[in-house]
Q: What sequence folds into this?
């Protein structure tokens, strides 16, 4: 490849990846206890999203309160915190071009009754209060939420080979 071709290659690649985003996904306690971790994570991997951070934890009230601070004071807030602290969750930092919107579309509507078949909630969930997954809803939310779950050195930087052809 000539120097000019290499420069063009780099330019087009950086253009293609200009909307590269990181987002937070949580596999919620109902999905973990039902043995759906692999099934859900597999969907994101199949879509081409790269796992840059991943761990199994159980949230306490403080952590769940931090995550759901925007919902504090709403009628469902206390039940939401109780549910999210009721068992282990899997925390994922996923990366991809337009990852935030892609993940939200893959999750389906908040209320599984309205979630389309083929989405995670549309395929695995029945109830609004046990809807299997969380995903950041905007770049601002992702920037706020990721540091709640991932500290220094817990989000790894690598280049998955398959992203070259996405
Ligand atoms: P999440 O934050 O968990 O990804 O869900 P979401 O963006 O689709 O929905 P959000 O409005 O952020 O609500 C957070 C979680 O609270 C429960 N919820 N209950 N009873 C209700 O009206 C109500 N509304 C929301 C859901 O479990 C939802 O996932
Ligand atoms: Mg939300």
A:
């Amino acid at each position: 490849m000539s120097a000019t071709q290499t420069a063009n290659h780099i330019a087009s690649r950086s253009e293609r990846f200009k909307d590269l985003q990181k987002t937070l996904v949580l596999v919620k306690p109902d999905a973990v206890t039902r043995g759906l971790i692999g099934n859900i994570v597999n969907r994101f991997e199949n879509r081409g999203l790269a796992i840059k951070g991943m761990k199994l934890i159980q949230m306490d009230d403080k952590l769940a309160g931090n995550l759901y601070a925007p919902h504090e004071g709403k009628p469902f807030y206390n039940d939401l915190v109780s549910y999210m602290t009721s068992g282990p969750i899997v925390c994922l930092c996923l990366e991809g071009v337009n990852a935030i919107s892609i993940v939200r579309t893959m999750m389906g509507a908040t209320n599984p009754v309205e979630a389309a078949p083929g989405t995670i909630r549309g395929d695995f969930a029945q109830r609004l209060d046990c809807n299997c997954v969380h995903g950041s809803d905007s770049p601002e939310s992702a920037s706020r939420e990721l540091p709640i779950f991932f500290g220094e050195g817990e989000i790894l930087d690598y280049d998955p080979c398959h992203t070259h052809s996405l």
Summary: Residues 118 and 135 are 17 Å apart (CA to CA). The mean pLDDT is 93.
